């Protein structure tokens, strides 16, 4: 289910869309620095929570106490001080690699379409992308099932190879009759808003939950901003380094991905940006303008273009480096302003409820 926010704000936004106009930006969005409260509100209004979890057959198993004692004996060691495991199946086998490749694609798709959220296994996607996410995940589930079926066809051969390689460590009880059903992916859309029934049962507790959720969305904005700054910084730094001549004056190997990865970042930033930091917005715009229409081959062949791109990115990189330095300081200032150093906002001791431990899809 999708997230909700204040009904009046939602009604105002709906009225704005009906009249064909965009909701007005917050007053300080055009200025420098961070604007977390307004960004957090936009996040609550326009994004939905998604959770992805995997069922995955483990290919390693710890040795028994007797086996560890035997393994430790040649070294004169004691078994309890030895950590050892056996590999049940060859996960480098082509069929196994196909299964793990589907999982990697799922995680990459999910992360590329979403922003982080301070709860294990949960990320935020635009409500406009819910149908796309749901459809693609259903396809991934079918692809994973097909890959597992293919792996199961090789299961007998994999077990036979394991029997030869493990010797006396091989135990038939470690192996299920089939691998079907032991690999899977699940996804849902959990609510991250306080339940309405709580308002009827205990209005004070409901208000506490609203404050806790508001703090979580503030934290989600901070996490998103830090993730964008970190990724942007790495991409800009890599491209600038590739454009700089080596010690002997020779040009370095320059791959297309040095440019195309930045273009992918620009598209994702436009889609997921909640405008929490006007300075970051301007730096992304500067870099995008610098690389607009620039083909990797042109960068390789034109010295003047290389120099132009290098000089522009150097200024961007300097500003990004300063942002990375300032981020921990801003976090401390925010914690102090929100009462993180001396009790929680709801009158407690500052230790809010901890998120539950859940299976996650690569957070």
Keywords:
single chain, alpha+beta, 8% strand, 6 strands, four-stranded antiparallel sheet, 2 domains, 363 residues
Describe the largest sheet: 4 strands, antiparallel
What is the number of helices? 12
Overall helicity: 55-70%
Global geometry: globular
Mean pLDDT reading? 82
Number of domains: 2
Structural class: alpha+beta
The side-by-side strand order for the widest beta sheet comes to 4-5-1-6
Q: How many beta strands in the DSSP annotation? A: 6
The string of secondary-structure elements, in order, is: HHEEHEHEEHHEHHHHHH
Uncertain spans: 1-32, 337-363
**How far from one another are the termini?**
21 Å
User: Radius of gyration from the CA trace?
Assistant: 26 Å
Beta fraction: 5-15%
Written overview of the protein:
There is one protein chain. This protein is 56% helix and 8% strand. It has 363 residues and is of the alpha+beta class. The chain folds into 2 domains: 48-73 and 82-188, no CATH class; 200-337. The protein has a 4-stranded antiparallel beta sheet with strand order 4-5-1-6. A hairpin with a 5-residue loop joins β4 (114-116) and β5. The protein starts with 6 loop residues before the first helix and ends in a 26-residue tail after the last helix. Mean pLDDT is 82; it is low at 1-32 and 337-363.
Short recap of the structure:
Helix content is 56%, strand content 8%.
Task: Describe the secondary-structure layout.
Blueprint: H1 7-18, H2 36-46, E1 47-55, E2 60-62, H3 65-72, E3 85-87, H4 94-112, E4 114-116, E5 122-126, H5 130-153, H6 155-166, E6 184-188, H7 196-201, H8 203-243, H9 257-272, H10 278-291, H11 296-301, H12 303-337
Helix pairs in contact: 2-8, 4-5, 8-9, 8-12, 10-12
